[in-house]
Amino acid sequence: MKYKIPLRIKIFFLLIIASCNSDENDELPTNVEIEEFSLNPNSTGLFKFYPLGFYSDKEINVYYHIPPGDVKNLPILLSLHGGNRNADDYRDCWIDMSNSNGFMVFAPEFNDINFPSGDQYNLANIFQDGDNPSLETYNSTEKWTFSILDQLFDHIIKVFDGNQINYNAWGHSAGAQFLHRFVIYKPESKLNIAVCSNAGWYTVPEKEISFPYGLDKGQLDDSVLKKAFLKKLHVHLGEEDTNPNSSSLRHNEIVDSQQGVSRRARGRYFYKTAKENAEILNTEFNWIKTQEVKEVAHNYELMARDALQYFQNK
Q1: Which CATH number do you get for residue 293?
Q2: pTM greater than 0.90 (yes/no)
Q3: 3-state secondary structure 86-154
């Protein structure tokens, strides 16, 4: 005679099996870290962030470091990685400076699965194809990758009921491309100070050149550009970042003849031309070209060390 297992016992064992086999990474996105999420002083780690809206199906790793101190009031720095998508390294290079100077670092990872091309990261998905802009392919602002930054800041503040009203951001290489375009296209964001280090090339605020190298066809009103010129943007260049054959550096007839053939030349052109166009618009201009970093080429760690000074006492 077969023994019939009571239903309640079956359910009990099923729950145990489900619990043992479950992977907390498989839980539905809730805009909260996969573990019981908290940000504590003197901690280094990673949490998963799920933006709202268009990117709600994207899981974004956010690498962070928090020094000792009052998390409700510590300044916040977002560190934006380059083309290698190595956000953990872009967090790590700030850890010692974070501890010594009392600010938190968060490095979101725009990986090549969710953001597979320069269109989605460097050019922030402003257009479906940034190299062929048109009114028909111009994306709504919720589809811009830029939309993630303020959301991430708000999420961080919500976690520890913080008093911070804005954040600073540093980007190097592709991260500097993303960041300077963020300033230009989203000047009403909660970003305070932006330091853009060694961008490979720029969207220059000039109307004679087509997007992505200039603003012709860029669908940007003068009123937005004037607000962008009011932001605290620092053009930060390595004195030795002059190699025209540097890996992944974009070259074509347009960008080479317009901006130059090296990152340093292009950064100089970007700042000079932006200042000239601010004068044409008769508007205040708060962008700064910092002193070029001596004996440094395309090195994100050394550029980060020099960039620190531009976030202090501001």
Answers
A1: 3.40.50.1820
A2: no
A3: CHHHHHHCCHHHHHHHCCEEEEECCCCCCCCCCCCCCCCCCECCCCCCCCCCECCHHHCCCHHHHHHHH
How far apart are alpha carbons 55 and 97 in whole angstroms?
A: 32
Domain count, the chain: 1
- Is 24 within a domain? no
pLDDT above 80 (res 25): no
Please say whether the beta carbons of 214 and 203 come within 8 A: yes
| CA-wise closest residue to 95 among 60, 46, 47, 43 | 43
Residue 158 burial (10 A CB sphere; 0-12, 13-18, 19+)? exposed
Distances (CA, A) of 175 to 116, 169, 194, 313: 15, 10, 11, 24
pLDDT band at 37; cut points 50, 70, 90: low
CA-CA distance, 191 to 169, in Å (whole number)?
A: 7
Q: pLDDT per residue over 88-146, tens digit each?
A: 999 999 999 999 999 999 999 999 999 999 999 999 999 999 999 999 999 999 999 99
- 299: number of Cβ within 10 Å: 17
What's the rounded Cα separation, in Å, for the pair 122 and 175?
Answer: 7
Q: Does pLDDT of 5 surpass 60?
A: no
- Residue 130 class from Cβ within 10 Å (0-12 exposed, 13-18 middle, 19+ buried)? buried
Q: How confident is the model at residue 34 (pLDDT cuts 50, 70, 90)?
A: very low
Parent domain of 256: 29-311
In a domain, 10, yes or no: no
5 located within any domain: no
Residue 277 forms part of a structural domain: yes
With tokens 């002083």, the residue in question is: 41
Q: What is the pLDDT of residue 38?
A: 72
Residue 202 has pLDDT above 90, yes or no: yes
Distance, CA of 145 to CA of 38 (rounded, Å): 25
| Residue 52 token pair | 């709202």
